[in-house]
């Protein structure tokens, strides 16, 4: 292990021999860190935190601190971080709330400087949280979603896969999969065509999604009536099926 002399690593912490720890960083007793992880200067990694292989954590990040939740009374909770994540300067990530509560981060995500991941959030794979993006407690971000800079997302909101929210937006309802959203409060402006093409979604599937979005957002229908038409008129491709299921299970309602 490559450890700067000023770094403090608790003897009970479990770090792979390939881990690099920068100057003045502090690693707590219940931390587990996998192969190839690089930790910059002045970082704090604490709590019941597990970091998988090949993550890069930059200067001043605080990972695994207790939740900013008044209900938290010191229960044993967790933060689990997958592989190949980039955690830029001064990012904060909290443990879950309640006994066994877990904040879960997937693989291949980019968390830009000063972004915040609160207690019990779930972040999928290949997501981007831009500078000062803020996830409140129990937020779910599905795969390949992009949160713009200075975006604030309300507790329990769910953001669908391959969706994008523009900078400085206020998100208080669920973001439909495959959508481009912006505003204060956030509104849907159409499909995330660039994201869909980058994700390798077939042209036919994109055409079906365009039709589905027209039914959802252009015809003045209720969600229930729109879903009936989508299920009746469109082939149930993987993307359409996911969109329908997302809308049916939305608890906060969706941005319109």
What's the layout of helices and strands?
Layout: E1 2-3, E2 8-9, E3 14-15, E4 20-21, E5 26-27, E6 32-33, E7 38-39, E8 44-45, E9 48-51, E10 56-57, E11 62-65, E12 78-81, E13 86-87, E14 92-94, E15 102-105, E16 110-111, E17 116-117, E18 122-123, E19 128-129, E20 134-135, E21 140-141, E22 146-147, E23 152-153, E24 158-159, E25 164-165, E26 170-171, E27 179-183, E28 186-191, H1 193-198, H2 203-217, H3 223-233, H4 238-249
Parallel strand pairs: 1-4, 2-5, 3-6, 4-7, 5-8, 6-9, 7-10, 8-11, 9-12, 10-13, 11-14, 12-15, 13-16, 14-17, 15-18, 16-19, 17-20, 18-21, 19-22, 20-23, 21-24, 22-25, 23-26, 25-27
Antiparallel strand pairs: 27-28
Helix pairs in contact: 2-3, 3-4
Structural write-up:
This protein is of the alpha/beta class and 256 residues long. The chain is 17% helix and 28% strand. The chain has two domains: 137 residues, UDP N-Acetylglucosamine Acyltransferase, domain 1, CATH 2.160.10.10; 53 residues, Up-down Bundle (Udp N-acetylglucosamine O-acyltransferase, Domain 2), CATH 1.20.1180.10. The strands form three sheets. It has an eleven-stranded mixed sheet. It has a nine-stranded parallel sheet with strand order 2-5-8-11-14-17-20-23-26, with no helix packed on it. An eight-stranded parallel sheet has the order 3-6-9-12-15-18-21-24, with no helix packed on it. The chain is elongated. It starts with a strand and ends in a 7-residue tail after the last helix.
């Amino acid at each position: 292990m490559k450890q700067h002399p000023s770094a403090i690593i608790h003897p009970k912490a479990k770090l792979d021999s390939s881990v690099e720890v920068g100057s003045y960083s502090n690693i707590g007793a219940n931390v587990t860190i996998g192969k190839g992880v690089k930790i910059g200067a002045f970082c704090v990694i604490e709590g019941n935190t597990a970091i998988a292989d090949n993550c890069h954590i930059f200067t001043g990040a605080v990972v695994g601190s207790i939740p900013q939740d008044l209900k938290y009374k010191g229960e044993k909770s967790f933060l689990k971080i997958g592989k190949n994540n980039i955690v830029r300067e001064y990012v904060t990530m909290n443990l879950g709330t309640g006994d066994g509560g877990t904040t879960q981060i997937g693989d291949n995500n980019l968390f830009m400087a000063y972004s915040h991941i609160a207690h019990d959030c779930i972040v999928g794979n290949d997501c981007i949280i831009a500078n000062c993006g803020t996830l409140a407690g129990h937020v779910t971000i599905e795969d390949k979603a992009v949160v713009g800079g200075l975006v604030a997302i309300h507790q329990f909101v769910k953001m669908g896969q391959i969706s994008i929210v523009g900078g400085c937006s206020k998100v208080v309802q669920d973001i439909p999969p495959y959508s481009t959203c912006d505003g204060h409060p956030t509104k849907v402006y159409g499909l995330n065509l660039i994201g869909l093409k980058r994700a390798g979604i077939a042209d036919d599937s994109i055409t079906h999604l365009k039709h589905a979005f027209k039914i959802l957002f252009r015809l003045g229908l209720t969600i229930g009536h729109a879903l009936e038409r989508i299920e009746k008129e469109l082939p149930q491709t993987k993307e359409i099926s996911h969109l329908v299921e997302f809308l049916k299970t939305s608890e906060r309602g969706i941005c319109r």
